[in-house]
Amino acid sequence: MTYQYPSHGQGQGYGQGSGQGQSYGHGYPDSPTAPVVAGWNDDRTGWDTPTAAWSTPPTRARVERPRSGEHLLDVRDLWIEFATRDGVARVVNGVSFHVDPGETLAILGESGSGKSVTAQAVLGILDTPPAVVRSGQALFSGEDLLTMTPERRRQVRGQEIAMVFQDALSALNPVYPVGWQITEALRSRRGVSKAEARRRAVEMMDLVQIPAAAQRIDDYPHQFSGGMRQRVMIAMALAMRPKVLIADEPTTALDVTVQAQIMDLLATLRAELEMALILITHDLGVVADVADRITVMYAGRVVEHADVHTLYGAPAHPYTRGLLASVPRLERRGQGLHSISGTPPNPVAIPAGCAFHPRCPYAQQMCRMTEPTLLRIGRLDRASACHFPPEALDARHA
Amino acid sequence: MSDLEMAATTELGTHAADTPPAGATPPPKTRSLAADAWYDLRRNWIFWVAAALVVLVILMAVVPGLFSGADPTACNTRRQFAGPSGGAILGYDFQGCDVFSRTVHGARASVLVGLFAVLLTGVIGLVFGMLAGYFGGWLDALLSRVVDVVLGIPLLLAAIVLSKRLAADRQGSGIATVVIVLGILGWTTAARVMRSSVLTARSQDYVAAARMLGAGPLRIMWRHILPNALAPFIVVLTITLGTFIATEATLSFLNIGLRPPAISWGIDIATAGKHVREAAMPLIAPSLFLTLTVLAFIMLGDAIRDAFDPKLRR
Amino acid sequence: MPVMPEPILRVENAVKHFPITRGVVVPRKIGAVKAVDGVSFDLRPGETLGLVGESGCGKSTLAKLLMRLESPTAGRAFLKGHDLFRMRAGDLRRLRRSMQMVMQDPYTSLNPRMTVADIVGEPFEIHPDAAPPGNRDRAVRELLEQVGLSPEHANRYPHQFSGGQRQRIGIARALALRPEVIICDEPVSALDVSVQAQVVNLLERLQDELGLAYIFIAHDLSVVRHISDRIAVMYLGRIVETGTADQVYLRPTHPYTQALLSAVPVPDPTARARRQIIRLSGDVPSPADPPSGCRFRTRCWKAQPRCASEEPPLSQRAVDPHPSACHYAELHQVIA
């Protein structure tokens, strides 16, 4: 699919003085204080909850979305808790996102933001207990992954949705050759013959650009370098031609030169195989290179989502702004890095109101009291969970 | 640089603001890993059952009078296999002794043998494990071979030989003999466990950090390695205590452990076994106590291991 | 150019080979992993030398050598004029006060069974003569304040702190003996982005306040750029290029440096089209059997027969006045 980027996508770097609201281009009235109707009335999703002004106490009411099956994978209002010794850890609190074929969605968040747990829940590999999925849906082609029978879920997992993990060394079984592992699912589920499986393994290894695939098919995982092991794992995930590939920090353990290769490979494969790719990462650099859309998570909530150019060019949420500002840049040799004060909250004791308020330079009384809802900004698929619209944030420090 | 960027920045001077962990989180109280383990233990019913049984057995060993007023040695063959009467709630055995009283008094020998043997085991195992694990190299190779050799000695055979040799110069119940036999043959598991947890602890970054500060081997072993390597070792010792009690009974049953006039579950089981057709209770009572005691120590060890295992914890 | 002060640390041809042995009873050496293979550099008081390279290039082994956690195979390293590599235990102990290290993983570098006060105060127990006169507790509290931690937390245990806070505890421990050199081995790579910046800022502030010299080891080239005055790029146990931060980042002449810089992800989606990533073929060769001549030649797109036969020295090249170990050094600007 193609995606329309907003017109201001050219180098509108955050921090270079985006000035007044005109740079956001869409949707906002001139005065930042005027009430902005920015509820979930996006035609694409069919949500319709008119939320009036910024001062309206936000509601967390579940919103019914009548049409289903519009997106390939559509996660709606997911809530997940863990029972811990210190109390109930609210790890995922009302997360929604969706992906379509041929699209890359990045879920960006720091440790403890709930991004990996969300992915595990969608894939049905979350250990329950200690985890409890309180509510929510994960619709794959209209079918709820969370309520389907275990047999059906096993079918979907691997065949329709597959996952690539960060640590390829521990995700691969050391006692079997890689070729055997790549085609294990093919043999056990599709009953492919041995000779055919071998042929397919070579094909898959070629696909992920492992050199001399035919010779290396009988090698064991430890005989491969880190980058090659990651390729083996990608080949394994793709053997069943899934429609959705979830990659959880796929390059974090790798060196930069290898990192670039793997991200390239994922982007190419996504386009070639018309897959939806969900990239879970904390690395703003990696995301900028490959993502189409970005969902930013903080303390188990989605705090902002936007297309990649808008998010980097004109971040709306103070957390996203701070995060972007605190990344050291190769081309900039600064005097002091910008940092967000404090530490991410403990999921057992998420601050009341806006979870980010103890670390937010813009925080007001209302931020401590009421939790902001994720409000749409403009006409695009763009939203931010802040009481203040971006212009108001800019104006506050003008 | 825009104002916005400035605003998103917290300058260095305000770092104090981030010191209360995680913003609004109520500051947790000082809580050591042992306190965490205790928290887990308190919620584990197996721990409480095991602990209650252990306390009961120890009480029986220390003050048997609390449970049974009758003298276990006041036997009278006229009461042979007599049924329960008066204080003797479990009746009488072959020699006309009070079965319940003998069983209660038998705890002392078992607990004494178990405790002292485990102490001996602990000392040998700790020293061997720590030296082998910390210094490694040829010392480790040597000590590990010693462990292999000791492991290769069949316990019963060695016990027969040793107890014959030791008992020759000794009168009395033979408690010391059994303790020495168990101690010098039973320390290998503890030493191996200690060695492997010392190896793990030694490769930790905090040990490297101490070395970089200039800490000597004694400080590193005592302050940094021992506290972090002790938990699995204690677990093994607890379980060993249970098995030692069982082994003591086995040796006594085979007549190479304690000897009368000592009162021991093993001796009583041996005697009662010969007359099980006449009366089952003299066999059942000590067997049951023995089983429960061994089980209690093993369960206690398991519960402690679970509490200290960080993998089971979130 | 101002007069260069005397280097506080001078490393000459440091070598560390880990023997590969076979046989259990009588081990015999069948080869060696050449983790660090002839590294030389100077570190001047108050400056930061950034050490970059991919995993397996030997940068962490070099740090361990300098801290004498590993014993060197050859070479010399003068800390304030004393050769660290030829020092007996007693003297080494005293010299350790001048050089400390901050480790990568804040979760394993603190003893979980000691309170923060014990951890930060331990240096004073090991070196009683280095302890400040008077109350040791007060010194610990001051150290905690210095790294931005509340002294009230002194009797908590490490696991009650977040990663960033633990890293601060590690920094406080390293500062206790008032060292002049601190080796930072990937000090922020285990931390969240939002916390990384705090720790980098703290390190910079401490350097200003205390006049510390840093050896800053990291694989994240952006962080290194940010904090370093000079940079050394390592590949397979050797330094392939070194110079000031601007020289190495803006005017790299070694192909490996150029490839490394080009691969750094840029947090700017508009740069996608402009960026040209230099793709290196193949993997890093095994340090047990490094290629002849130039070690980078097996992955280099400019390799010539000469590269296999003749090892390029780390010397100034005509193109730019900073040392580069490439026969065919040429400028190639990677960063816009």
Describe this structure in words.
The complex is a heterotrimer of chains A (398), B (314) and C (336). Helices cover 30% and strands 19% of the residues of chain A. Chain A is an alpha/beta fold. Chain A has 2 domains: 21-160 and 243-328 and 337-396, P-loop containing nucleotide triphosphate hydrolases (Rossmann fold); 167-241. The two termini of chain A are 39 Å apart. Residues 1-69 of chain A have low confidence and may be disordered. Residues 1-28 of chain B have low confidence and may be disordered. Helices cover 67% and strands 0% of the residues of chain B. With 314 residues, chain B is mainly α. The relative contact order of chain B is 0.14. Chain C is 28% helix and 24% strand. Chain C contains 10 helices and 12 strands. In chain C, a hairpin with a 2-residue loop joins β4 (74-79) and β5. The mean pLDDT of chain C is 88.
Level-1 CATH class name of chain B = Mainly Alpha
Query: What's the helix count of chain B?
Result: 12
Strand content of chain B: under 5%
The CATH class name of the largest domain in chain A reads Alpha Beta
Q: Regarding quaternary structure, how should these chains be classified?
A: heterotrimer
Fourth-tier CATH superfamily name of chain B: MetI-like
> What is the gyration radius of chain A calculated from CA atoms?
22 Å
Give the N-terminus to C-terminus distance of chain A in angstroms.
39 Å
CATH topology of the largest domain in chain A: Rossmann fold
Structural class of chain A: alpha/beta
Q: Give me the secondary-structure category of chain B.
A: mainly alpha
Family (chain C): Belongs to the ABC transporter superfamily.
Protein name (chain C): ABC transporter ATP-binding protein
Keywords (chain C): ATP-binding, Nucleotide-binding, Transport
GO molecular function (chain C): ATP binding
